[in-house]
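Supplementary Methods. Inverse-folding protocol.

Structures were first reduced to a discrete structure-token string of length 194. This string, shown here, constituted the complete conditioning input.
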């Protein structure tokens, strides 16, 4: 009986020692992926994707508002470009998110909702000035975020999305800066004539 107990103990020890490297290998593989999850995207990649989706959704909503409320043809045209370009980018981002198992937001966050609410109460030149000022600020921040992701993101698909979207965002910022002074000058002129 004692021999059977000893043999059983030895067998258990051998089995556990045999399986230990396999278990350790699995642990090492999951650890070597850094902060990457099993679906490939790191926590910071996922955060970027969710924030980019949130920002893109806001750009579309605010762009629609601009096409309705702006007095300047340039601002209306810029608003429509925001709807078109960010809708396209949002569709591409949805594909990336889907392949990575990332759930995207489906409504504006509180900050963007407040911005939309504030802008919706304005009209004409006041709207133009406030909207274009927001577009310069938003796109400046977006570019910084997309540059960071395109250079230091962990997931190649997310990095590629950021890198491919960056030139369009830079062009949006350039255009917003060009339009912004003209809306400020027009608003100042209007206030001076009153």
């Amino acid at each position: 009986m004692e021999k059977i107990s000893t043999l059983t103990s030895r067998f258990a020890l051998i089995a556990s020692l045999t399986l230990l490297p396999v278990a350790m290998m699995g642990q090492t593989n999951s650890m070597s992926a850094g902060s990457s999850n099993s679906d490939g995207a790191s926590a910071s990649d996922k955060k970027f994707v969710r924030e980019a989706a949130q920002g893109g959704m806001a750009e579309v909503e605010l762009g629609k508002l601009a096409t309705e409320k702006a007095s300047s043809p340039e601002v209306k045209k810029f608003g429509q470009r925001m709807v078109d370009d960010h809708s396209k980018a949002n569709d591409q981002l949805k594909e990336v998110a889907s392949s990575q198992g990332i759930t995207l937001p489906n409504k504006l966050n509180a900050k963007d909702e407040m911005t939309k609410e504030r802008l919706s109460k304005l009209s004409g030149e006041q709207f133009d000035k406030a909207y274009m000022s927001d577009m310069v600020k938003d796109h400046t921040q977006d570019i910084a975020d997309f540059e960071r992701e395109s250079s230091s993101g962990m997931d190649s698909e997310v990095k590629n999305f950021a890198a491919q979207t960056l030139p369009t965002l830079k062009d949006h910022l350039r255009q917003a800066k060009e339009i912004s002074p003209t809306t400020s000058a027009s608003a100042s002129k209007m206030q001076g004539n009153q």
